[in-house]
Structures are given as C-alpha cells and as structure tokens.
Design brief:
The protein contains two helices and five strands. A five-stranded mixed beta sheet has the order 1-2-3-4-5, sandwiched between helices. Helix 2 links the parallel strand 3 and strand 4.
Length: about 120
C-alpha cells in the first residue's frame, strides 16, 4: 500500500471512529492557503478540527510524535481561516488529533483520540 493510500485509509478509519463516538462530520480535507484540515466535525456544542496521522511502522516514531511545532501552527492558522470564512458555527472550538496505527495486514492495531491536542501557544 502506498503512503497516500495509507493516509486515505487512516482518515476513513478516523472518520468512522469519531462518528461512533458521537461526532457529526461537517467536512473533510478542507484546504486553504494555510494548509489542510483532515476532518472538521461537531462534538456537541464544540467545533472540532481534526488532524489524522496514520503509521504502519513505528520505526520513525509514533503518529503523535509526527506532529511538529510548524504543523501545529499551520493547523491553528487553517482553523482560524475556516472560522473567518464560515458562519453560524459554535463559539467553542478545539483541535484534536487521531492517531491510527495499522498492522501488516492494514488492519487497525490502535486508534486513539487526543482532545485539544493543539492548544493556543
């Protein structure tokens, strides 16, 4: 499986995982000049921007370790852009992270939600 296909699979698994937790998916793969947000969802009265990281091997670290300070800043900027260009949104918002690890058969070996993973800095 190619890297891009792994990412697409991880995002699909993350979407299903979030929906099973009660999140309402609003949009996927939102792109703007600041970058991309994998999933935009609603969790009760909170707008949630979700970054998904999928790994098949932990040789280069866990999915969580792959989020650099620069990536966090791009996520904050993209979220801000979304909030400025879309209306009638909840006042509360946060950036969550979903870590997906796949085994050699491309099956989920771990999926974890980290709420408010990218705070204001």
């Amino acid at each position: 499986m190619k890297r891009r296909d792994t990412g697409i699979l991880g995002e699909r698994l993350a979407r299903d995982f979030l929906q099973n937790k009660g999140y309402h998916i609003i949009e996927t793969n939102f792109r703007c000049p600041h970058g991309e947000i994998d999933i935009i969802a609603r969790d009760k009265d909170c707008l949630v921007f979700v970054e998904v990281r999928t790994k098949k091997s932990l040789s280069f670290g866990t999915p969580e370790e792959s989020i650099t300070p620069a990536k966090k800043e791009r996520l904050r900027s993209a979220a801000s852009h979304y909030l400025q260009t879309h209306h009638d949104l909840p006042q509360q918002w946060r950036i969550d992270f979903v870590a997906v690890e796949l085994n050699t058969r491309n099956e989920t070996s771990r999926i974890e939600l980290i709420e408010n993973a990218v705070g204001e800095e």
